[in-house]
Specification:
This protein is of the alpha/beta class. It has 15 helices and 20 strands. A hairpin with a 2-residue loop joins strand 1 and strand 2. Bound molecules: nicotinamide-adenine-dinucleotide.
């Protein structure tokens, strides 16, 4: 059995297909990955890190071909695909250069005894990833996991399985399997899986966490967001800033976990904001075939995603929303959805309340900062957020009151990421972190060897029922 993948810009074109791993063949793959683990984990750290650097070089060498394939299967503009692959290679080099400090054992050896703490791999990691940034979101798991000596079984999304499968071949210690919820369940429940790393939506996340809970396997979950962008009353944006803001919402046709999904603008500055936003959108948004270098927004990923956006737009219209289209979408049978700002919506409209994950963005007005804060925080999700102000200290102070794992200041979405800054959600947006030192630590557990001095040869000993005394 194979999964075929169509091109969302031209659904009649089949880009490629991948073999399905049925639930009853999952065991074979995990056992092979576990055999690989015995060998891989014994290699010296330097050898493992060098392999990641070499994989990054191979990714760079294949970047153009991989980007074209990714654009055709996902609908993302080809320039963005090149950017994602380049960023993933950069991240692998960051792991190569920074993992040793995190993965080093530490030893205390003094007159109280000898304690050795060493980070140990979990074994086989199951990585389950979404379609919207399949390369970087997989590499964020593969890099740290492999560095630490784990091997990985990677289960990509059926909506973009092709480019990531080619990337996985460039890395040692990775086996790829394809399939749906049943395959994932068999993988996550497998007793030889040491850790599960999932990025995707809340429904799948809940189901995976429940299966992992039954198996007592630790999980890291990177789930959806409904990021507010709050413009304080002193915000000052240049035309370039507005263009960056437009792409913060509409890159990948709005299908990004950390897209700016709700815009909160002071009532007194609303007209000026909308005028400048529309002008910037006209300059920066070109909707069309992802392989066209001029295109900045492609189709949404599937017929179902387009239907979901139609339903959200119908609800917005029924709730009194005023639709402002930002660019024309091509007349084609592709899954194109015109990028749209939606004004005048009540806070309980679906487009405000739920993660839209598509190219329709509500603009909401407010009168006081406390009101903006309360409304921005009124979500069960807490992934990202942004604050915009000429006064950086004021923005940071406001940001501390936002319920979000990652708050951008004067930007939002990928232009605000840093390899040094841990990313992940609060509330129902997940747990665990990617990037930075925290992202490396997710794939190791600390193991300890302790020889108390009391019991060294010739040591003073200790009564059998005693507790240890104070330490320095
Ligand atoms: P999805 O949850 O539908 O799929 C993600 C992965 O889970 C895929 O591999 C899919 O095959 C698998 N899957 C789907 N349903 C499953 C189930 N019931 N049981 C087990 N596995 C299942 O998500 P998607 O549409 O690919 O991605 C969109 C979602 O991912 C959005 O909510 C987005 O915000 C979120 N996301 C989060 C981050 C982050 O870093 N927090 C990054 C990207 C995307």
């Amino acid at each position: 059995m194979r999964i075929q993948r169509e091109n969302p810009a031209r659904p009649r074109e089949i880009v490629g297909s991948v073999p399905v791993t049925t639930p009853d063949s999952v065991d074979d793959v995990v056992r092979e990955a576990h055999r690989d683990f015995r060998e891989w984990s014994r290699r010296p750290l330097g050898t493992r890190l060098a392999a990641l650097g070499a994989a990054a070089d191979r990714m760079d060498a294949k970047r153009s071909d991989l980007a074209a394939l990714l654009a055709r299967e996902s609908g993302k503009p080809v320039a963005d695909c090149r950017g994602e692959i380049g960023f993933a290679a950069t991240y692998l080099r960051w792991v190569r250069d920074n993992a040793a400090t995190v993965l080093m054992a530490t030893t205390i050896d003094d007159d109280l005894g000898r304690i050795e703490c060493a980070p140990a791999p979990y074994g086989v990691v199951a990585a389950i990833t979404p379609w919207n940034a399949p390369i970087i979101l997989s590499v964020l798991k593969l890099g740290p996991a492999l560095a630490a000596g784990n091997t990985v079984v990677l289960k990509p999304s059926p909506l973009a399985p092709l480019a990531i499968s080619a990337v996985a071949e460039l890395l040692p210690g990775v086996r790829v399997m394809h399939g749906g919820a049943e395959t994932v369940r068999a993988l996550v429940a497998h007793p030889l899986i040491g850790k599960v790393a999932f990025t995707g939506g809340g429904d799948a996340g809940r189901s995976i966490a429940a299966t992992a809970g039954q198996a007592l396997t630790p999980v890291v979950l990177e789930l959806g967001g409904n990021d507010p962008a709050v413009f304080l009353d002193d915000f000052a944006l240049t035309p370039d800033d507005y263009e960056r803001l437009v792409l913060a919402s509409f890159a990948t046709a709005g299908q990004v976990c950390m897209a700016a999904k709700r815009l909160y603008v002071p009532q007194a500055r609303f007209d000026e904001f909308i005028e400048s936003y529309l002008a910037a959108a006209r300059r920066i948004l070109t909707v069309g075939d992802p392989l066209d270098e001029k295109v900045t927004m492609g189709p949404v990923v599937s017929r179902a995603a387009a239907a979901r956006m139609t339903a959200l737009a119908a609800d917005a219209w029924n709730r009194g929303g005023w639709m402002l289209p930002l660019a024309e979408s091509p007349d084609s049978d592709g899954y194109f959805v015109a990028p749209t700002l939606v004004l005048d919506l009540p806070d309980d409209a679906d487009l405000v309340r739920l993660e839209q994950f598509g190219p329709a963005v509500p603009v909401l007005t407010y009168d006081t900062e406390d009101e903006a804060l309360a409304r921005a925080n009124n979500s069960e999700l807490g992934l990202g957020a942004s604050v915009w102000s000429v006064d950086e200290d004021r923005a940071f102070t406001f940001a501390t009151r936002l319920e979000a794992g990652f708050t951008f200041i004067n930007t939002h979405n990928r232009t605000g990421m840093s390899l040094r800054a841990p990313f992940g959600g609060t509330k129902r947006s997940g747990f665990g972190r990617e990037y930075a030192v925290e992202g490396l630590r997710e794939y190791v557990q600390t193991t300890v060897r302790h020889a108390p001095a009391a019991f060294r040869a010739g040591g003073p000993g200790m009564p059998a029922r005693a507790y240890p005394g104070p330490t320095r």
